[in-house]
Write a structure and sequence with these properties.
With 1233 residues, the chain is mainly beta. Among the domains are: 96 residues, Sandwich (Immunoglobulin-like), CATH 2.60.40.10; 96 residues, Immunoglobulins (Immunoglobulin-like, Sandwich); 91 residues, Immunoglobulin-like; 90 residues, Sandwich (Immunoglobulin-like), CATH 2.60.40; 88 residues, Immunoglobulins (Immunoglobulin-like, Sandwich), CATH 2.60.40; 101 residues, Immunoglobulins (Immunoglobulin-like, Sandwich); 97 residues, Immunoglobulins (Immunoglobulin-like), CATH 2.60.40.10; 104 residues, Sandwich (Immunoglobulin-like). It is built from six helices and 87 strands. The strands form 22 sheets. A five-stranded mixed β-sheet has the order 2-9-8-4-5, with no helix packed on it. Helix 1 packs parallel to helix 3 and helix 2 packs antiparallel against helix 3. The N and C termini lie far apart (114 Å).
């Protein structure tokens, strides 16, 4: 048990020992009843002392800890036993005192239940017992029931947990081995026919820090007693780095280690920290160690988890540790634009009346400002969240009241802005809404007033009043009333009318702005009310602090290739500062993003996850419970690259040639350039037997090849090299081998040098090298490239035939494998000496690698090759090559570079531009790419280029015309798309036409239609019509030739429509003459009229002779009809039959058709069709119909069955007229026509 907790417990026990149990009661009872109850109460109190149970035997290695814990708990149990004994003695004295005050009354008088001794609140340690007891009287004897948090206690539901006893009016409840979950409000209810009485008390069970049972998992061998984890030697190997996660995801931090000795049952002792706070295993943090691996898993990330994580392991020499930052960004909100979730929700100042909930605000970069917060609560053991505040609270804390006393709650918070509500925060730890009363036992009835009434917290939303409880206040439970008045008015108003306050502090919300209030407190118990306390000084609802002022100057500097070090000045007005938020923005983007998602407490921060080669600016905001400050001024732009330092040492010095008095040397560039371009190199030399180094030359070498002059033949020399950059001179290289100054006379070539790797991909690598300085006795004709896996000496020649250039694309490599290469030059005399073995290279593409893209500029039509680098340094440059020969000056191409992009543009592409083009980015880890331009692709690009340089306006339809209602002629064309700046003109017979009277020209951008309407179309309009369109750079033209017969048809139609329009200006037929046969076989001639007037006349004619009708027609009705007797049909049939032509065969898409032409034909005539003397009825196979001058029969999909003679008969009432056609297939006509 911690010393602090033990001290607190003993202080409470001391208070118990010094308190007195006095109960003042005024009831009267008989002496016999008093004596009898005294005896019964004495027996009830005489219980055996509580003894510590015997624990099981402990293993030797756990005995020391057990004895320590047992000693602490044993002393506490003895003290608890003594206290219980003193309580029982005091209770007996109380009972005796009460009985002595009673007067004799008849025992049979009915009485309501009354508690002579009420329940008392207790605070106990976990795994210790607690006993609640009370004394109750009543006539008849009351029935007593025990409750916890208003839930009846049933001993049988948890055997051994609860023990309920009743001995002559003394009722007790014993809770054995209390757990933290046993905390709550315990109540006892006594009931009889006369009424009901209730007594309550709060039990708070506390857990000692680090408390827990010691036990071994079954099946595991006990720890070796001779070795402690701190005696192990632990060396950390690969450890977790800076990690990025998102809310709701799972993240694991893993560290590998070597443990000596490595004992399976004795893993090292590891501790995990977040921002120097020790983490303990829970459902939010899972820890494991063993097998050389320490692992921390966060199964459900929250922004509360962001911070610096440290793994600290005890070793033989102390501790070894590793730290890295974990960033947790906001999860995607359910509503676009909603803020991120708040964090670090804590519940404090818990009491029976309210709980103070506080939190930290989220960062906002592109989101709208936060307007407030909603706080939700959830009872432990339930799943439903209930919103606590109706309106958003603007400050990051809220007193939550209306809680159930004794119940445990969790809280969460949601942020609000104009776009919506954020996701909820991580819920707080559970807190119990209960207050442990002190056991004050002073003989008083009406309590005194509280003292020291003051405001402990003031803001614009609420104030918190606190006061010192009255002393003494008596045994009866007390509560408090709060009254307020405006200024010095002395008109007091009750504040908590519906709430019974039991805690000496309470938040007050109902206050008007800009008004001062005074407050006073009254203590109340069942006996009455105290005098009011002294009123407070005037208190006004204001924000004493507000948000902090903006932080001062922000300075950003380089840290690594993906991080920056940002520091700033603290704000002048901190106002209870919580921390800072750091934001970053890429130059030119105008978009800010958060660098941390949880307030950072210090004024310096390392921003991780930046893109190498980009330039950023930074800003900082200060945070407190009122929100975020104004943004600081932006930092100066910072190019992201490693911090500037001197270069590392060059290496790999090799001898390329020697003529007996000079040596040509080459070396490899430093692996780390120090963030700046290497300017030059200094060379030193010495004789192999000497220790003194001398400068080779007073001026440094500019390139990585140098000829050392004035050497002595036959002497062995050693060399070393130092690189120089802006930061200074770097470390010297290791001394080279001892090279003999002897002239080379071999016939074969010397070694190639400067092997480099480009276009590294998952299965291929481009190997490049420089030609040997010493060529031997003839020109070099080619090269062989040898390859081996890293660590192997078994080289394999890649190319079967020598390559004639200094590069080779090696394919078919194993992804992720590392290889080394060497090159051998060839001349006529043979294969020369192999080059030095290259550095290992891994066949794996750089993250984010992109290839060269070939395209055509949509504006200019230029053909280009474009490349975007995945990595860039401040000194990087783009180097373009054709066939791997650098392009320096060329009239064929132009090169432009900006930021990460570089573009090679062809001036006038032709066949000589075909080939392999490559680009490499200097001062990077081999960022490069290549592209092969072949003839087919060049032709395709040239076509696209021509279309862009000579654009056309795409037309949906060509120029066309149509005749309108009044005889107007409309010429129109429709484009797929037109802009508002389109220009066009119509040309007729080589003459431009403009919009004027009689000719209207217009266009509609939305439909793409351009039109010209000629109102009076005459013979003079014959000719060729053309429209020319200009829309930006695009052009288009369309023509229509309207001459000869085509023009005559158009002119005839235009004149007809013009006459029709004129005709319709007076009375005219809207429907011409037609007829139908009525049910009484009368032929009815009908026509419809339009635009008639009263003076309009209507006359019927037959063959130019006027017909006199019985009923004059009425033109105003819009329709006129003339009935004709049926014999006219026969007359028409006679004329039609006499004029009928022979049957004619006509082929149609559906089959064949037999047609008979005649002067008149109508379906009312008696017409019949026959096939082989069988009458034919109209059907899907045989369709019968006709027009005004023809009768026909359609045979659909004819077969052999349809062969034979076909006849049509027309009856005129006197005789029949027939026409026959032979469709036998033997003669002229066949079915396959």
């Amino acid at each position: 048990m911690p010393a602090r907790a033990v001290t607190l417990y003993r202080q409470e026990q001391t208070q118990h020992q010094s308190s007195k149990h006095v109960v003042h009661h005024s009831r009267i009872s008989s002496s016999q009843v008093v004596k009898k109850k005294q005896v019964q109460a004495t027996e009830a109190m005489a219980e055996p002392a509580y003894t510590v149970p015997a624990f099981r035997e402990r293993a030797p290695e756990g005995m020391q800890e057990y004895q320590r814990m047992a000693a602490h708990f044993g002393r506490d149990l003895v003290q608890l036993q003594q206290e219980l004994h003193r309580m029982k003695v005091a209770t007996q004295e109380q009972v005796k005192g009460m009985m002595s005050l009673r007067k004799d009354i008849p025992a049979e008088v009915p009485k309501a239940p009354d508690f002579l001794v009420s329940l008392r609140s207790h605070t106990v340690w976990e795994k210790t017992p607690v006993k609640l007891f009370c004394t109750v009287s009543g006539q008849p004897n009351p029935i007593v029931k025990w409750y916890r948090n208003n839930v009846a206690i049933e001993p049988l539901s948890a055997p051994g947990k609860y023990k309920i006893e009743n001995k002559y009016g003394v009722h007790s409840l014993i809770v054995s081995r209390c757990a933290v979950t046993d905390s709550g409000v315990y109540s006892v209810v006594a009931t009889n026919p006369q009424g009901k009485a209730t007594s309550k008390a709060t039990v708070c069970v506390r857990r000692p820090q680090g408390g827990g049972e010691l036990s071994h998992l079954p099946g595991l061998v006990p720890l070796l007693s001779g070795i402690h984890p701190s005696k192990l030697e632990v060396t950390l190997l690969e450890s977790f780095g800076v990690t990025f996660g998102t809310e709701g995801e799972s993240v694991s931090l893993v560290a590998n280690m070597v443990v000596v000795p490595d004992l399976p049952n004795l893993p090292p002792e590891a501790m995990w920290y977040r921002d120097d706070t020790l983490l303990i295993p829970s459902r939010w943090a899972e820890m494991s160690i063993g097998g050389g691996v320490a692992k921390l898993t966060l199964p459900h990330l929250n922004k509360d988890d962001e911070g610096l994580y440290t793994l600290r392991i005890w070793t033989k020499d102390g501790t070894t540790e590793h730290s890295a930052y974990l960033f947790v960004k906001d999860a995607t909100p359910t509503v676009a634009g909603a803020p991120g979730a708040p964090m670090d929700v804590t519940a404090s100042d818990a009491n029976a009346d309210y709980v103070l909930v506080s939190w930290k605000p989220p960062n906002t970069t592109h989101e709208a400002p936060i307007t407030g917060y909603f706080v939700d609560k959830r009872k432990s053991g339930t799943k439903d969240w209930v919103q606590c505040n109706d309106a958003p609270v603007k400050v990051c804390k809220l007193p939550v009241h209306g809680l159930t006393e004794g119940a445990s709650y969790h809280f969460r918070v949601r942020a609000v802005n104009k776009d919506g509500i954020s996701l909820p925060s991580k819920m707080s730890s559970g807190v119990t809404a209960a207050e442990v009363e002190s056991d004050v036992e002073v003989y008083v009835t009406i309590p005194g007033p509280p003292s020291n009434v003051h405001a402990t917290e003031i803001n614009k939303t609420y104030i918190v009043l606190s006061w010192t409880p009255p002393s003494p206040r008596g045994r009866a439970p007390v509560w408090y009333l709060i009254e307020k008045c405006v200024g010095d008015s002395h008109i007091w108003q009750r504040v908590n009318t519906a709430v019974q306050l039991r805690s000496p502090r309470y938040p007050v919300f109902d206050m008007e702005d800009k008004k001062s209030y005074r407050f006073r407190i009254i203590t109340v118990n069942k006996y009455g009310s105290s005098e009011p306390s002294e009123p407070t000084a005037p208190i006004q609802k204001v924000d004493p602090y507000g948000v902090p002022s903006a932080p001062g100057q922000v300075i950003a500097s380089r840290n690594t290739k993906t991080s920056a070090f940002v520091q700033w000045e603290a704000p002048k007005h901190a106002n209870n500062l919580m921390g800072y938020y750091v934001d970053a923005s890429v130059i030119g983007s105008k978009t800010w993003f958060p660098c941390n998602h949880r307030p950072y407490k210090h004024t310096r921060f390392v921003v991780h996850g930046l893109v190498p080669g980009d330039t950023y600016v930074f800003r900082v905001q200060a945070v407190n419970s009122y929100g975020l400050s104004e943004e600081s001024q932006e930092s100066a732009p910072l190019f992201i690259d490693a911090a500037l330092s001197t270069p590392s040492a060059p290496y790999g010095i090799s001898l390329l040639n020697c003529n007996g008095s000079s040596m040509t040397l080459a070396w490899k560039r430093p692996k780390h350039t120090g963030g700046s371009k290497i300017k030059s190199y200094y060379l030193d030399k010495r004789r192999a037997e000497s220790v003194d180094w001398k400068d080779v030359s007073p001026s440094p070498a500019v390139h990585r090849i140098f000829t050392v002059e004035n050497l002595t033949g036959g002497v062995f020399y050693e060399f070393k090299v130092q690189a120089v950059n802006l930061a200074g001179v770097g470390l010297p290289s290791e001394p080279s081998k001892a090279f003999a100054c002897e002239a080379w006379t071999i016939a074969e070539p010397g070694p190639a040098y400067d092997i480099s790797f480009w276009e590294v991909r998952d299965s291929s690598i481009l190997v490049q090298w420089r030609a040997p300085v010493y060529t031997g006795e003839g020109p070099i004709t080619g090269y062989f490239v040898d390859m081996a896996k890293k660590g192997s000496s078994d080289f394999v020649t890649v190319n079967a035939e020598p390559v004639g250039h200094c590069y080779l694309m090696v394919t078919g490599l194993e992804t992720g494998a590392s290889y080394v290469f060497r090159v051998r030059a060839v001349n006529a005399k043979g294969v020369g000496k192999a080059s030095d073995v290259s550095d290992p290279v891994c066949a794996k593409a750089l993250p984010g690698t992109k290839e060269i893209v070939c395209g055509v500029d949509q504006e200019t039509g230029d053909i280009f090759l474009n490349f975007e680098a995945c990595e860039l340094s401040e000194t990087s440059k783009f180097s373009w090559s054709k066939s791997y020969k650098e392009i320096t000056e060329s009239s064929r191409v132009s090169i432009t570079s900006s930021g990460r992009h570089s573009k090679l543009t062809f001036v006038n592409p032709e066949k000589e531009d075909l080939g392999i083009y490559s680009v490499a980015v200097t001062d990077t880890d081999g960022v490069s790419s290549s592209y092969s331009v072949n003839e087919e692709e060049l032709k395709k690009m040239l076509d696209l280029s021509y279309n862009i340089k000579h654009p056309i306006v795409p037309l949906k339809t060509e120029l066309n015309y149509e005749i309108l209602e009044k005889g107007h002629v409309r010429f129109w064309v429709q484009a797929l798309k037109l802009s508002s700046s389109v220009n066009y003109r119509f040309i007729v017979n080589d003459k431009a036409i403009t919009s004027a009277e009689g000719c209207k020209i217009s266009h509609d951008v939305s439909t793409g239609i351009i039109q010209m309407t000629i109102e009076h179309f005459t013979k003079a309009n014959e000719g060729t019509y053309t429209i020319q369109i200009h829309d930006g750079k695009a052009k288009s033209q369309s023509s229509l030739v309207l001459v000869g017969d085509a023009f005559k048809v158009a002119l005839k139609e235009a004149e007809f429509q013009r006459k029709e329009h004129i005709r319709k200006q007076g009375p005219h037929f809207s429907e011409y003459l037609s007829f139908h046969v009525t049910d009484d076989c009368t032929v009815m001639l009908v026509c419809k009229l339009a635009n008639v007037k009263k003076e309009t006349t209507f006359t019927w004619f037959k063959e130019d002779e006027e017909i006199t009708v019985d009923v004059p027609p009425n033109p105003m009705s819009g329709s006129c009809s003339l009935p004709i007797p049926m014999d006219i049909i026969n007359a028409i049939a006679s004329i039609a039959g006499s004029s009928a032509s022979e049957l004619v065969l006509q082929c149609t898409p559906e089959g064949i058709r037999l047609q008979c032409y005649m002067t008149y034909y109508t379906e009312e005539m008696k017409t019949s069709w026959f096939h082989r003397e069988s009458k034919i009825s109209s059907s899907e196979k045989m369709r019968i119909g006709g027009t005004a001058e023809m009768a026909w029969m359609q045979i659909c999909e004819p077969t052999d069955k349809e062969k034979g003679h076909y006849t049509i008969e027309i009856h005129d009432g006197i005789k029949s007229h027939s026409r026959t056609f032979d469709l036998s297939g033997q003669g002229k006509w066949r079915l396959d026509c």
